[in-house]
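Before relying on records like the one below, remember that each one covers exactly one chain. Contacts with other chains, cofactors or solvent are not represented anywhere in the record.
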Amino acid sequence: MSVGRKLLLSYFIVLALLSTLAQGFLGGAIIVVLTLGYGTPLLIAAPTLLLYSVALLPAWLAVIHRPRRALTILVALLLPLAVAIVPGAISQTGGNRYANQMGSHDFARPGQGKPRSIEFIGDDDWGVFEHSFRVGDQRAPCSALCRMLLFNREVDRIRMTYARRAAPQSVTYYLEHRDSCPPAYPAHTSSPEKAFRDRLDAGDCLIAEAESTSPMEAAVSFTTPYNRYRDYMPPADTPPLTRIDSIKRLVIERREEGSKKTVLVVQRNETTIAMLTVPFYFGFEESMAGHTGHVIAPLVKVTHPIDLVKALRDTFDFKIAQIEPLK
């Protein structure tokens, strides 16, 4: 075996060894310590270098082969180019098409006028509800949005409906002036905004009642039909070489005066989708779950993002701002 071939074989062995060691915390740590940290970039890049080196191998063989043929070398050079471009192009084309398809039925009919009562329907995926302050009834708390609309007198009644469980739970909130207010949040938890606490101290009480039958003038549903961390079966029509991370859906309905039926006025779909990058490469991940190693580097894209506050302003002309302090 010639010296050049021995060096080439050694090169591939080293890259394969680095790629394998990097998949475990201990092996990667040993390399980093032995190289005083300077080997970290090589450790991260090893799988990508190995992939493109293998893709370039036919071109190298075509160059050393006698007689050399320019066409053979050119065709062989197209292989690493295809590795760099084709997977990402297929992934991004399919991903963008899927996202556009999800948003193809979106529409909005603004200028509906302010409703005096409204229902917010959501789950716990950072939409209608929040995780920081459990204000009001713990079954369906009054979120920051709920408090701002009530205490700024934009609405009279708000029904919060938690829709994650098989049987949704609803709690209706309204303000009532009293000499002293019932507790609005657990004393041992972090307290919400100061203006809210001051208004409670002044007798503007947040009253909760487990009522879910009286008709509301408007309903806002902001839910997550799919989240890959919660749902193990992705949508059936997922395009190739892509990963659907989440699908969020906003539906706003308005009840016409004197009517029992609601009319759909806003519908929007937000899709978070991970596609392959162009050029294709491997990234490195250290997760809190304990996994450390290489992953196919994704291009994460949020298409048709939903801004709940903006949607409510555009649809109902709500003034959504921090709770007004005592005057």
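The two ends are 90 Å apart (CA to CA).
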